[in-house]
Amino acid sequence: MTSNSGGARIGIVGAGTITQNVHIPAIQRLPGEVELVAIADMERSVLDQVATANRIPDTYTDYREMFARPDIDAVMLMVGDPLHVPLAIEAIEAGKDVFVEKPMGTTVEECLRLRDAVRASDRFVQIGNMRRYDAGVAFARHAVAELIGEVQSFDAWARCASSDFSNSAGAYLPTIRPAGYARPDWKLDRPKYALDAHSSHLFDHIRYVVGAPQTLSAIRGQRGENYSWQGLMDLGDGGVGRFELTYETAAPWSEGLMVYGTRGTVTLEMSPVAEHRPSRVEVFDTESNRFITPYLIGEASMYLNQMRGFGRAVRREEPPRSTVDDGLAVVMDIAATRQAVDTGASVRIEDLEVRS
Q1: Residues contacting residue 110 through CB under 8 Å, at least 6 positions apart
Q2: Which residues pair with 160 in a beta bridge?
Q3: CB within 8 A of 119, min separation 6: which ones?
Q4: Which residue has the higher pLDDT, 274 or 109?
Q5: What is the β-pairing status of strands 254-261 and 151-161?
Q6: Residues in CB range of 58: below 8 A, 6 or more apart
């Protein structure tokens, strides 16, 4: 059911930083397309402040009451990683479409359960891979597919800045938090959290722009509380690539891709996530012996574009760009990286699904 204005009616679970500073502002810029009608959070003090500040009509401390409303079309799950899959399955069973932040889940096994639940329903799950709605990334994907020939090799990286060096510092507004806020338990295992949270974007960038890796090998380094994963990927068709995740580093935040093809190259320098502007992309075409830098027009904010896409998917006007299968593939990449580090052996990624 959609509202009389035709907009998708949305409820959010979780009133934290990303909800307050990213998703609510995006929804507010889409009147008539997406309507935020309810929000749920266990912390009543935070819930009331966020709802009042953003004129959200209804609040719940029990998300199940919100799921039970027949007038809500879809829910957004802005909760801790261990809750992504359980709440997504509950929402699907309640007849809701689902938007869930990355990573889709914490294990391959639970992500397979979510995929099965989606396939058994008429609902969909969209993963919060906002770069798929970045105009620069979209052009890079087009260039790799159409302009530079077959992929010979690629480099992909995500170097996460410490707060002292972050080039996004101050980009988020102050966040309403409960008194006595402490970092949640699931974030205390620093290497696990770093790999799960940040390689999920890195691996999705590779899959969306370059293609699906078949095998993976990796090593992990450590300096104090900072970690770095370096790995190799085989695309299975003669193309190979390297990836790096460093968390944290004493330098500005940096994410990007270099893709080398048989007829050219693509350089993609991703904009800091909080700056709401397209990534910079440059293509070198060997046939014309020239560089191509596209003039990107349209909405600059990938978060707004992502929310518009979610609304359209709820209204069945277009499919989501990041599906439950995409979410599963990335979690398999993460699991393969962890296994490769632990065993020192190359991992065939599809074997993880078979063993699960």
Answers
A1: 85
A2: 247
A3: none
A4: 109
A5: antiparallel
A6: 37, 38, 39, 51, 66
Beta bridge partners of 265: 260, 284
The string of pLDDT tens digits covering residues 212-234 is 999 999 999 999 999 999 999 99
**Distance separating alpha carbons of residues 165 and 202, to the nearest angstrom:** 20
Residue 176 · residue 14 · CB < 8 Å:
no
Alpha helices in the chain (DSSP H): 17-18, 24-28, 44-54, 63-67, 84-93, 108-119, 135-146, 190-205, 302-314, 324-343, 350-355
3-class SS of residue 109: helix
Q: Within 10 A of 83 (CB to CB), how many other CB atoms are there?
A: 18
Q: What is the pLDDT of residue 169?
A: 44
Domains belonging to the chain, first-starting first, are 8-129+306-322 (3.40.50.720), 132-299+331-354 (3.30.360.10)
- Using a 10 angstrom Cβ sphere, with 0-12 exposed, 13-18 middle and 19 or more buried, the burial of residue 99 is buried
Q: Which two tokens stand for residue 312?
A: 């359209």
How do beta strands 240-249 and 151-161 pair?
Answer: parallel
Regarding pTM above 0.90, the answer is yes
Of 323, 318, 299, residue with least CA distance to 30: 299
